[in-house]
Write a structure and sequence with these properties.
It is built from 19 helices and ten strands. The chain has helices at residues 2-32, 37-45, 53-63, 65-90, 97-124, 127-135, 140-144, 189-196, 220-229, 255-261, 279-285, 294-299, 315-330, 363-383, 408-412, 443-450, 473-477, 479-487, 491-498; strands at residues 153-154, 161-167, 265-270, 290-292, 336-341, 391-397, 421-424, 454-455, 459-460, 463-464.
Length: 504
């Protein structure tokens, strides 16, 4: 009887796991879209403190009820079967056919559910593709990568300030069709106007607006790494010791490293917990940034200790705090690199602040429009400051939105989604008027050049300086190939970037 009960418990556990994996296989693409397994691995290895509860709530409501209900029913049936068997044994009937049949059927169903659950989950979260990428190394780094630490840089006599605004999920998709977007009327008219009057490297070819965000730079932490280091955040299983408060891509020489080495004060402002996704690790170790996050706002008395909305506090407050921080940096007598990250446009549905108007009938559209307005107002405020003349502003979405339901019709139409990108007040002009095809990695060397810094290479990392006429990697091999190659295992990446081994 003891052995039978152990088998019954095992059956229930395996059925629960199988059904849970089956539900997860349906939930992941519905909630996040087509994400790589490497993204899942990364978030397993780094802190998830401060994550918005909406995703967890969605997981609980979508994935848990059915496995729990079915497992409870099965458990009840097995308990009844076990009880009947006990009665049969007492009565001397040791071979009760009904109970034997129920056990056999339960075992078979258990195996079927378990196998199908695992199989569905493997394909849904991309474990099969991940394994293929591990077994088929890429040589893209040997062909195109330039180690930024090996390049010679010359700074202008008066060093230029940088304001870099990472905009959560901000796409050119939101623009009107006349400007290369998907909609008849732009959801981001203020940002559309900013891009028209400033530098986008498209030179009037609106169909080419924005930049491609490869899968390994397709979530916020990875996007920040890609845009400021020129490399993807590709973290194989077991690499967690290289993504910590002691080590985070030790072989990368980033924008923060370069500017700190040349006398800049680096700072990043976030309305969320900086620990989330390992962002604190990266910005501490690469540029010694002053990190001003949700908890800093509480400590500084900017918000009440009990105040918490969305991911921490809303962007409406973030923009006001940004003005204070920028004013203090400008008064510090030191060139500065000020970064900030918006959050209201995060999936699911965004966060409507008190100034969001109901213009479109759905919350996410309203939040996108509100974000466009607030970002542009901050840019206009900066342009009114005395220090603006010697300041470059970079506006960049971090990655494509993951609000899969909102984008369903857009995806089904075959529209080519890209991420928003504009440079305001660069120190130089492009060498060519060609419309450029851009990826996340090109933003790093281009930002460096926009500060009037010259260097003896057209590339940094996998990125190309868009102010030169050197083709980007996307222009040379196409986006699909770049995306695929950066997802694949690379001995070079692991040895020299992930583990930081010396080439000498």
């Amino acid at each position: 009887m003891k052995k039978r009960r152990m088998i019954s418990v095992l059956i229930v556990i395996l059925v629960f796991i199988g059904l849970l994996l089956f539900k997860v296989a349906n939930w992941v693409p519905s909630a996040f879209g087509d994400i790589p397994f490497e993204q899942v691995l990364f978030h397993i290895m780094v802190p998830m403190d401060g994550a918005d509860s909406a995703v967890l709530d969605s997981f609980v409501s979508e994935c848990l009820p059915m496995p729990i209900i079915v497992s409870c029913i099965l458990l009840l049936l097995l308990i009844i079967s076990d009880w009947k068997t006990s009665v049969d044994i007492k009565n001397g009937d040791l071979h009760h056919k009904t109970n034997c049949i129920l056990t056999v059927i339960s075992s078979i169903c258990c195996l079927i559910v378990y196998v199908f659950g695992i199989t569905d989950c493997i394909y849904a979260v991309g474990i099969d593709e991940y394994w293929y990428n591990v077994m088929h190394p890429s040589n893209i780094y040997e062909k195109y990568y330039v180690d930024p630490s090996s390049v010679n840089y010359t700074f202008p006599e008066t060093k230029r300030n940088l304001v870099y605004i990472f905009m959560e999920s901000m796409e050119t998709t939101y623009e009107d069709t006349a400007h290369g977007g998907y909609f008849e009327e732009s959801l981001i008219p203020e940002l559309t106007e900013l891009s028209e009057n400033n530098l986008t490297f498209t030179n009037g070819d609106y169909s080419n607006n924005g930049f491609y965000a490869p899968a390994m730079s397709g979530w916020t932490a990875a996007a920040m790494v890609g845009q400021t280091s020129g490399v993807p955040l590709n973290t194989p299983a077991g690499a967690n010791s290289y993504l910590s408060d002691k080590s985070f891509l030790p072989g990368a020489y980033t924008l923060g490293d370069l500017l700190e080495d040349n006398g800049y004060q680096n700072e990043i402002l976030l309305g969320s917990d900086a620990k989330f996704g390992g962002r604190e690790y990266y910005f501490n170790l690469h540029g010694n940034y002053k990190i001003v996050d949700y908890y800093s706002a509480v400590e500084n008395g900017w918000i009440d200790k009990d105040y918490y909305v969305w991911w921490g506090y809303e962007d409406l407050k973030l923009f006001e705090f940004a003005k204070n921080e920028l004013t203090n940096l400008a008064a510090g007598g030191q060139p500065f690199n000020f970064n900030m990250l918006t959050a209201d446009t995060h999936f699911v549905g965004g966060y409507p602040c008190e100034e969001c108007e109901d213009l479109y009938g759905d919350q996410y559209s309203n939040v996108i429009r509100c974000s466009s307005k607030h970002v542009t107002e901050l840019v206009q405020w900066i342009q009114q400051q005395d220090w603006y003349a010697n300041t470059t502003i970079v506006l960049a979405g971090d990655h494509k939105s993951m609000d899969n339901d909102w984008f369903k019709d857009i995806e089904d139409s075959g529209y080519d989604r890209k991420v928003y990108y504009t440079i305001v007040n660069p120190a130089i002009s492009p060498a060519t008027q060609n419309s450029r095809t851009v990826s996340t990695y090109d933003l790093y060397p281009t930002t460096v050049a926009s500060l009037g810094i010259t260097y003896d290479s057209p590339r940094l990392g996998l990125g190309t300086n868009l102010f030169t006429d050197t083709p980007t990697v996307v222009e040379e091999i196409g986006y699909k190939k770049l995306n695929k190659q950066t997802m694949m295992h690379s001995n070079y990446y692991d040895k020299y970037i992930l583990y930081g081994k010396s080439k000498k």
